[in-house]
Write a structure and sequence with these properties.
The protein has nine helices and 13 strands. By secondary structure, the chain is an alpha/beta fold.
């Protein structure tokens, strides 16, 4: 048959195990192994390297998986459309989110999903690395900034404003700001983008036009949570996306400065494989994330 062994191969590649793939498919490991062997014979290539301890993809296997996984996912999704009468959102969903967002808001997302969809199981990867959704079997990734071209689906969630902020303790010692020029008399904490290696420049809108201010080079960090900690400790003035400091501003731990003048945005997007576009699990997780994001931006 044309598709004989393709489903089994994708499950083995994603699970990294014939035994686990067989469990998911409801068949024996022997039947799964034979189905993959028939597929390899039909294609005339080896797709998997097999040892007593592990199963890994060959280079041909990686190439075949990149096309086969979305196709199998699409077939499964098409089949699931006939189960729409069942309102339950259940099964395993793998999510990847940036570390700062996870530290600040993952508990809110999980609480919402657990209350609304108790049969949904979450496997969450909290990382700032640009994970390979196909290789790492990720159903949905939350990503900041501009996205590279890919075959994945991207949905823009929000463009968050940058805020200029400082702690009340810092301002009590060093004085408040009346305009952008006053920044020259203050410690301006720098943030380095790990991906580009560049320190972000601060941007403002003034009567004379756009104005760029460079952070001082005294203190530069590349971790959002460490940057926030320095601000809370009163080390200096900073400029950060609203999601990182909105709660601190609302509770008086940080003061927002020059709100009319501060410029700049950070885009937050969902990224997911195309066949998952109509998945009930995907919709449920996206709705929970969007609610938390909009409430804290």
């Amino acid at each position: 048959m044309l598709f004989d062994g393709v489903h089994e191969f994708v499950r083995v590649a994603q699970a990294g195990s014939f035994t686990e793939a067989a469990r998911q498919l409801g068949v024996t490991p022997s039947a799964t192994s034979k189905a993959v062997a028939r597929l390899e014979a039909a294609l005339g290539v080896r797709l998997l390297n097999r040892t007593s301890r592990s199963v890994t993809l060959t280079s041909d296997g990686e190439t075949f998986l990149a096309t086969a996984a979305p196709a199998v996912g699409g077939i499964e999704e098409a089949r699931n459309q006939f189960k729409e009468h069942d309102p339950k959102v259940q099964g395993l969903f793998r999510l990847s989110i940036p570390s700062a967002f996870g530290s600040l808001y993952l508990d809110d997302v999980v609480t919402k999903l657990a209350a609304d969809h108790p049969e949904l199981r979450l496997d969450v990867s909290v990382t700032d690395e640009l994970v390979d959704l196909t290789r790492d079997r990720i159903d949905l990734a939350l990503r900041f900034g501009e996205l590279p071209d890919s075959q994945l689906v991207a949905k823009r969630v929000i463009a968050m404003s940058f805020w200029t902020i400082a702690s009340p303790a810092y301002l009590k010692v060093h004085g408040d700001l009346n305009d952008v020029d006053d920044l020259s008399d203050h410690t301006r904490l720098g943030f380095r983008n790990r991906g580009t290696g560049r320190v972000r420049q601060w941007t403002f809108k003034t009567a004379e036009g756009p104005q760029t201010v460079a952070p001082t080079d005294q203190i530069v960090v590349d971790d959002p949570l460490a940057y926030r900690s320095l601000l809370l400790a009163g080390i200096g003035i900073g400029q950060a996306p609203s999601y990182l400091v909105a709660d601190d501003v609302a509770k008086g731990r940080l003061n927002r400065l020059l709100p009319k003048e501060t410029d700049g945005e950070l885009t937050l997007s969902f990224v997911f494989p195309r066949p998952l576009g109509r998945s009930r699990r995907l919709r449920a997780v996206m709705e929970a994330l969007e609610g938390v994001i909009h409430a804290n931006s």
